[in-house]
Write a structure and sequence with these properties.
The chain is mainly beta and about 270 residues long. The chain contains three helices and 18 strands.
Length: about 270
């Protein structure tokens, strides 16, 4: 966040904050299931409007989501179908175009709290990226949605595509499978062997691990996994007969637990 602009280089997006809105608090670390709070935006003390609200920019890693959803469209449909009885669907997921890119718009509200949520969803690099607008004033949320047309996004942004490429690695779920691994060294954990450790890696054109990103891990686990992964060798991934970089996810430790209740968590969890 700088000069009243939120920029995310990984997702290739730029969002211009509404006038007199700021990021007052930073979000928590990502969850074990790959949910990120990227930015929390709200009116500043100089805001002159009669109504207030919040803007949440979030991302869900599609490699580690606890649902069976294969893309952002399926995941937002799952959210709709599992809304708590306290919420009311005001508009089911509907395709819209924002800043020249494809999004899904999902509206729901809480009659008791007299609040409305406007959720705009797309997919970038195998992440569901969301803009969640919350307010009791629907006119305010609509004006905020209109201002989204000033933002910039990568060409790949789409609720059912968004699989990388075009200058960034191609993202492929479960690429780190036995048929693609040529050499493998298992990490050695002295302790903390059973908690889930979700990891994203980038594999270069020669099949070597180029970059490692830990979503959640203890320092000793990070070292053990890093030392091991840099010794792994993969079968290069070919696109149109040419090797390209690949981004994929690996889960070390105990598998993530599936939800035990059909009640959905809030979209802005």
């Amino acid at each position: 966040m700088a000069n009243h602009v939120y920029t995310n280089q990984y997702f290739g997006l730029t969002y211009f904050l509404p006038a007199d809105w700021i990021e007052k608090y930073t979000g928590p670390p990502p969850s074990d299931s790959g949910y990120y709070v990227l930015a929390q935006i709200r009116p500043s003390d100089r805001f002159k409007g009669t109504s207030r609200g919040t803007i949440l920019i979030a991302a869900q890693d599609m490699f580690f989501t606890l649902t069976q959803a294969g893309n952002a469209l399926e995941l937002i449909d799952h959210t709709k179908d599992n809304l708590s009885a306290d919420y009311k669907v005001e508009q089911p997921p509907t395709p819209v175009t924002i800043a020249g890119h494809s999004f899904l718009r999902f509206d729901y509200g809480s009659p008791v709290a007299e609040l409305h949520w406007r959720v705009l969803t797309t997919q970038i690099r195998c992440h569901m990226v969301q803009f969640v607008f919350t307010s009791g004033d629907t006119k305010l949320t609509e004006s905020l949605l209109q201002e989204m047309n000033e933002m910039t996004l990568p060409l790949e942004a789409s609720p059912i595509l968004g699989g990388g490429g075009d200058g960034v690695p191609v993202c492929i779920k479960d690429y780190a499978s036995s048929e693609n691994i040529l050499e493998k060294v298992d990490p050695v954990f002295a302790e903390r062997r059973f908690n889930p450790v979700p990891v994203r890696i980038i594999i270069d054109k020669e099949g070597k691990v180029k970059h490692i990103h830990f979503l959640s891990a203890f320092p000793d686990q990070e070292k053990a996994i890093t030392d091991a992964l840099f010794q792994w060798r993969f079968r290069p991934f070919l696109r149109d007969g040419k090797p390209v970089e690949v981004e994929t996810g690996i889960l070390f430790g105990r598998a993530l637990r599936q939800p035990t209740s059909s009640a959905a968590q809030p979209v802005s969890e």
